[in-house]
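Worked example 2:
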Amino acid sequence: MKAKKGFNLRTVCGEQIIVAEGKENIDFSNIISMNESSAYLWKNIQHKDCFTHEDLVRLLVSEYEVDEATALNDVKEVTNQWFEAGIMEV
């Protein structure tokens, strides 16, 4: 998996959102709001060529007091949301 190019995390009025930048994303009109943990994950993967669910689980377990099973469920949910929003690709 990888984050689509041109989608960057920004803080706007205290909220962390994904902003589409660049000509290739000119038709993207969604606003993607991120909570603290999803923003943490996005910051750590947005410029990587590739990442796995396991990579994201390791990030969550190292940053938050969460077990691997819970982290994996959360990772699957957030990556599904990112796919549906069109900000991530295989």
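DSSP finds three helices and five strands in the chain. The chain has a mean pLDDT of 91.
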